[in-house]
Amino acid sequence: MSGSKNILSSDVEIKGNLKFANDLIMDGQLIEGAVISDGDLTVGENATINGEIQTRSVTVFGVVKGNIMATDLCELKQNAELHGDVTAGKLAIEEGAIFMGSSTVGAAASAVAKNKPAPSAPASKPAENSGGGGENKPNPEGGGNSHG
To answer: In angstroms, rounded to a whole number, what is the distance separating the alpha carbons of residues 93 and 98?
Structure first.
C-alpha cells in the first residue's frame, strides 16, 4: 500500500534505530539513534530527534539534533529547529525556522544522500567541510560570491 501512514504519538520514546517503509509521522522522542527509510518522514511539532535522518523526504515541525540526508526534499517549517547539516535534492526553509548547520543542495547532493550507507551508530561529524558548492555559512565580512 503506497498510501499508508504510520504515526508515533507524542507519548512515544525510542532509543535505537527506527526503520520504516512508507510514510511516518513522528511526534514523539528519538532519544538516540537514527531514522532510516526510503519513504517520507514528518517530524511533528512535539517531536525531538537526537540522531541522523536518512529518508526520501523530511518535513520538520519540531526539533532535530543531527544531520539530515534526503534524496528529494527537506522542509523546515515555521517553528522548526535543526541543529545539524543537510544534504538534500531540494531545501525549503520557512521564515521563523532555526537552522544551525551547513547545507549541500542539488542533484549532486541527492546522489550523495542515495549512496550514503545507513548509520549503525552515532557517527562523529567532521569539523569542517572541505568542499565548495552549496554551503550556507555566515561570512563576517559580508563578501561571499558578491563582486562589490
So the answer is: 9
Mean pLDDT, residues 95-105 taken together: 97
Q: What is the pLDDT of residues 4-33, one digit of tens each?
A: 788 999 999 999 999 998 999 999 999 899
Distances (CA, A) of 9 to 19, 24, 40, 74: 16, 11, 17, 22
Q: How far is C-alpha 91 from the chain's CA centre?
A: 10
pTM: 0.75
- DSSP letters spanning 9-27: -TT-EEES-EEESSEEEE-
Q: Where do the domains of the chain lie?
A: 5-115
Evaluate the CA torsion angle 37, 50, 45, 18 in order and state its sign: positive
